[in-house]
């Protein structure tokens, strides 16, 4: 087997391993899956690094988007070949992205330096560059959440590591993950235990600092806690309401409402598009749902489309409806899915359960005022956007509600990732969050990341728990870009001052020999 072929296979498998770590949320695997990529920096040319990066990213894509082959055909009816086409294009996109990342890193990378300090500072710069580029990609792909890739995300499964996000967001976890991989690669190359100690020390410090944050955190209460009942009928989104099944669906909803009402909650929270049509105050089904619970002072928070009466624009919305069937608040989704909810150019995937709805973006959306404080709202992929939640918390949100429909992805990894992104938002912004998700995980998560209750069923789901409003503002919420700005400053200082100085010192040492 030729050397180049062997390297190509290693890089593809390394990418597949990193994808496995990301989709299965494995902290162990993510800590060494990028090591082969960094080892090859020591012997590859800068031109070869472009191909190496592509193979690595393409390998990630091959695993990450494999579900698309059957999924795209199943969801849209556009055929098996169309699924393969989207699968390959998505994988190539990741390949091109990592080509750029790896080429930039290859131009910064210093090898054969005798100074441990110089090497340490260089690896810090590489981690910083990786993290900043990853954050830029995340911002660009807000409307393409299925293509999201954040290397530090696996750490959110651990309650202590998760606490670090309240300082620097997910970017901080990604930065430390890359640093661990870099020092493990250096350990392999130089066989110096010092670099193994560096990697172990980073993990240890992450755990210790996270533990301190977890046990020292104290929410600043804003009024009393309140009870929420999260209900989901878990209907397959391919199933259309019609004259034949309408009564059965309605009775299912009524029973869920009756069961929830018996628990005497303050809010009954329904998933995204729980009613798959446009809101009307004369909607008989909605009126009956409200009537069932109006013996108590319950507010329904329910996903239903909203049409603007003036310009006829249609929104993916959440309505707050009181016991008198009066609308007390409306939130319109701000970050739409490109190519699905809004066109990508002239392109729009017509999902089989929808009639090609073209939605409009909600603008200048603010938290909804309730009798227990302000509620920030995140519909579907908005929970993946760190910016969307932090903006609402800075605007005064005391709690967060997340509404989703994972029916399309209930049998793959996306549903679990969706849940852990909600957990991430709870800790990043120090806000309790209620998650209502059709065919996904329904849960209540405290602002310290503790999962109060969670449930995923194939039949109707009902989850009850308490939410405590607070006025805490984490460092990340106040300054969401701070960590990335600090990294950019460090990269600039390193490239303009530290690296040239290092090169001069190494050259001087060589001349002395």
UniProtKB/TrEMBL annotation:
Q: Which GO terms describe its biological process?
A: lipoprotein biosynthetic process
Q: Does the keyword tRNA-binding apply?
A: no
Give the first-level EC class, as a single word: transferase
Which pathway does it serve?
A: Protein modification; lipoprotein biosynthesis (N-acyl transfer)
- PROSITE patterns given for it? CN_HYDROLASE
Record keywords: Acyltransferase, Cell membrane, Lipoprotein, Membrane, Transferase, Transmembrane, Transmembrane helix
Which residues are listed as membrane-spanning? Answer: 20-41, 50-69, 81-108, 120-141, 161-184, 196-217, 479-498
Q: Which Pfam families match?
A: CN_hydrolase, LNT_N
Cite the EC number. 2.3.1.269
Q: What is its main location?
A: membrane
Q: Which residues form the CN hydrolase domain?
A: 226-469
Its domain of life reads Bacteria
Q: Which InterPro entries does the annotation name?
A: Apolipo_AcylTrfase, C-N_Hydrolase, C-N_Hydrolase_sf, LNT_N
- Return the protein name: Apolipoprotein N-acyltransferase
In its UniProt entry, the species of origin is given as: Flavobacterium aquidurense
Which lineage do the record's taxonomy fields give for this organism? Bacteria, Pseudomonadati, Bacteroidota, Flavobacteriia, Flavobacteriales
Which gene is this protein's source? lnt
């Amino acid at each position: 087997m030729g050397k180049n072929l062997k390297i190509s296979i290693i890089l593809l498998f390394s990418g597949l391993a990193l994808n496995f770590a990301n989709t299965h949320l494995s902290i162990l695997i993510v800590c060494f899956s990028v090591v082969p990529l960094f080892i090859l920096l020591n012997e590859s040319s800068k031109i070869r690094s472009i191909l190496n990066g592509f193979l690595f990213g393409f390998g990630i894509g091959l695993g990450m988007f494999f579900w698309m082959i059957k999924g795209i055909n199943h969801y849209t009816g556009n055929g098996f070949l169309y699924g393969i086409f989207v699968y390959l294009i998505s994988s190539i996109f990741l390949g091109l992205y990592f080509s750029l990342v790896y080429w930039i890193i290859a131009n910064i990378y210093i090898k054969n330096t005798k100074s441990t300090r110089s090497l340490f500072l260089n690896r810090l710069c590489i981690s910083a560059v990786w993290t900043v580029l990853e954050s830029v990609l995340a911002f660009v792909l807000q409307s393409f959440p299925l293509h999201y890739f954040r290397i530090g995300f696996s750490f959110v499964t651990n309650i202590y590591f998760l606490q670090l996000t309240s300082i620097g967001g997910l970017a901080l976890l990604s930065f430390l993950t890359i640093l661990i991989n870099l020092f493990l690669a250096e350990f392999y190359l130089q066989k110096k235990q010092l670099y193994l100690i560096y990697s172990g020390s980073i993990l240890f410090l992450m755990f210790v600092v996270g533990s301190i944050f977890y046990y020292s955190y104290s929410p600043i209460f804003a009024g009393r806690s309140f009870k929420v009942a999260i209900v989901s009928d878990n209907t397959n989104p391919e199933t259309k309401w019609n004259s034949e099944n309408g009564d059965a669906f309605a009775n299912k909803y009524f029973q869920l409402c009756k069961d929830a009402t018996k628990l005497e909650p303050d809010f009954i929270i329904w998933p995204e598009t729980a009613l798959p049509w446009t809101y009307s105050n004369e909607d008989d089904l909605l009126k009956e749902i409200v009537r069932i619970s109006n013996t108590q002072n319950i507010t329904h928070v329910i996903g239903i489309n909203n049409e603007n009466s003036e310009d006829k624009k249609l929104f993916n919305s959440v309505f707050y409806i009181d016991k008198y069937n009066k609308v007390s608040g409306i939130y319109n989704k701000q970050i739409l899915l490109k190519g699905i909810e809004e066109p990508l150019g002239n392109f729009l995937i017509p999902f089989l359960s929808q009639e090609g709805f073209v939605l409009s973006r909600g603008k200048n959306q603010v938290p909804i005022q309730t009798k227990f404080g302000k509620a920030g709202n995140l519909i579907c992929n908005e929970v993946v956007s760190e910016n969307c939640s932090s903006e609402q918390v800075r605007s005064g949100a005391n709690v967060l509600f997340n509404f989703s429909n994972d029916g399309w992805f209930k049998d793959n990894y996306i549903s679990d990732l969706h849940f852990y992104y909600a957990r991430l938002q709870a800790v990043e912004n120090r806000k309790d969050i209620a998650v209502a998700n059709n065919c996904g995980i329904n849960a209540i998560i405290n602002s310290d990341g503790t999962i109060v209750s969670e449930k995923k069923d194939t039949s109707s789901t009902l989850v009850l728990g308490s939410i405590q409003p607070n006025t805490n503002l984490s460092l990340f919420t106040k300054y969401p870009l701070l960590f990335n700005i600090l990294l950019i400053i460090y990269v600039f200082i390193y490239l303009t001052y530290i690296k040239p100085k290092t090169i001069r010192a190494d050259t001087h040492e060589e001349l002395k020999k």
